[in-house]
Amino acid sequence: MTPNESSRSFFARNQFLIYRLFSLSGLIPVGAFLVVHLLTNASVLGGAASFQSRVDMIHGLGPLLVPVEWAFIFLPMLFHATVGFMIIGGGLPNVGSYPYVGNIRYTLQRATGMIAFAFIIWHVLQLHWMGEPLGGGRFDPHHATSSAAEVVAPLAISLLYAIGVLSTVFHFANGLWTQGITWGLWTSPQAMRRANYLSIAVGTLLAAAGLGAIGGLRGTDTAAARAVETRMDDQRRLLEGQPPSPLSGTPAPGRPVPGRDSGAEDAIDLRSGSDLVPLLIPEPAGAVAPTTGPAPLSGN
Amino acid sequence: MSTKHNGPATASTPPSTGAAGGEPAPHDSGDHLALPRTIDVRVLRQDAPGQESYWERHAVAWEPNMNVISVLQKIAAGARAQDGRQVAPVAWDCNCLEEVCGSCTMLINGRTRMACSALVDRLVEEHPDGIELRPMLKFPVVRDLVVDRRRLFRSLERVKAWVPVDGFYDHGAGPRISPEEQEDAYPLSTCMSCGCCLEACPQFTRIETVRRDGETEEAFEQRRTAAFDRGFIGAHAISQAVLFNGHPIGKLIADERMEAVTDQGGIQMCGNAQNCVAVCPKSIPLTRSIARAGRAATMWAIRKIFDR
Ligand code: SF4
Ligand code: SF4
Ligand code: FES
Questions:
Q1: Exposure winner among A25, A76, A89, B46, fewest CB in 10 A?
Q2: Which residues of chain A are at the B interface, by a Cβ-Cβ cutoff of 8 Å?
Q3: Is the pTM of the predicted complex or chain greater than 0.95?
Q4: Cβ(A40)–Cβ(A210) below 8 Å
Q5: pLDDT per residue over B226-265, tens digit each?
Q6: Is B203 touching A (CB cutoff 8 A)?
């Protein structure tokens, strides 16, 4: 090997492994997270309750959530982005002279990588509690649909989200294809073509899920969603033995929920989430006489 | 005047789409006789390494069956720029004139290709306003269109692109290679080290080392080689490593090749733009080689990590 081995930097000596780890991190865990994240978000199309129950499941990790987030999402993403920027810095795109499909994809892969990076930082600060000092952190895990719907309500924000989501999805789907070449999964031109169909299918599915989530949030009746979420939140608190949230504006059992009368039944669609929502939800107003809160629990 | 003139025999007949067997109607609508008598050739010149480059125009009289080499020969014979100034002849490299030696690579109308197989009539068809010639961007210019492609050969050294058979003993006949294996290997063996794949590769960037004042030739060479060895080896070298690792005797040093292929500047630098395969004049399946080398590198890394 090189005679002055020790004089080379750590990065130079381990370039191959670092680049392979970079490639792997795009799929596991970053890409895997992206898939789960987009599919979870798409559940908003099934109604506020359906999305809320999935969010509750994730937040069921409790104190583990933060270390899990950092170990499996943020740190791998930062690693992928750091090496990614180094790779971009080392290349010299030339689509102008060589406008081939592969080359356009190569260039788009870099462009979408940078867009995705900027988008994800913005997105995290805007929704994740870490962004609170900056006026962000607007996602309320106990009011998943309504708080997210409020964020994307302005059309411009929705459009920015659509661009961000599509860039990220392209980067992932195209990365899937190049990754198969990098690791030697598909080697012949025919196999690469078949793999290309696979990556197009994955990309289309994820793009539909991502855009669907944005559309679903935009179509949400925020007040009705908030009512569903509040009820679910109260039940959660009940199960955990906490008092109902004083801030959540919980309607007393039996009191009509705001927005309930404005034809919001369709938007709430309790049926689709019924398998996930515990049976503790009070019957809609006007049905049976309201039971006192904890009663059904003791009945079991 | 052109032998491949395919316009309608009766020029007055309006072009009927589809009736001419899919042949598109010629867009120069009948004035074939007005083909350029002279060709405007723009050459990016440079007098010596490290000097400023400058454009120079040449008017070259058209002749049948010209290629870019014959254009350059005419420029050299005239040694006059378009404005009549006496200039030094433009320098270029060539040898075989039949696209097998790989020495005449240059940028013709912005795209890397072999000058000897670049036919002027075809070029004028694509770019009626003339021909633009530039030296390759990824190698240091020696003079005009001549570049120093030492790095390309250094890459072949790095991956030991040969069959190690030096020695004093008669080893007898080598192992048989099946026709299938031969068919697989043959295309890779046609590489002529032209460097087109490197020129078009967005991941292969130029490395130019300048000799310092008072530096000995040996010290300079060592420094230059070290700089090359930090850079990307390139598609051609990866493909040659695959070729020789597939050869029954070449295989004997397969590990050494894999060491080089996964060292700094190795296969990991490839960004899968697949320009290399698109521009290779020999149509070598470079991306197949790269993917095969990628698979071998995956196995090699697993072995290296877990077998020690
Ligand atoms: S596939 Fe790799 S070697 Fe070929 S042009 Fe692209 S980056 Fe360069
Ligand atoms: S692989 Fe093709 S383009 Fe590259 S040096 Fe060989 S012949 Fe030229
Ligand atoms: S002169 Fe040999 S390839 Fe062009």
A1: A89
A2: 1-2, 8, 12-13, 15-17, 19-20, 87, 90-94, 97-98, 100, 102-103, 105-107, 109, 178, 181-189, 192
A3: no
A4: no
A5: 999 999 999 999 999 999 999 999 999 999 999 999 999 9
A6: yes
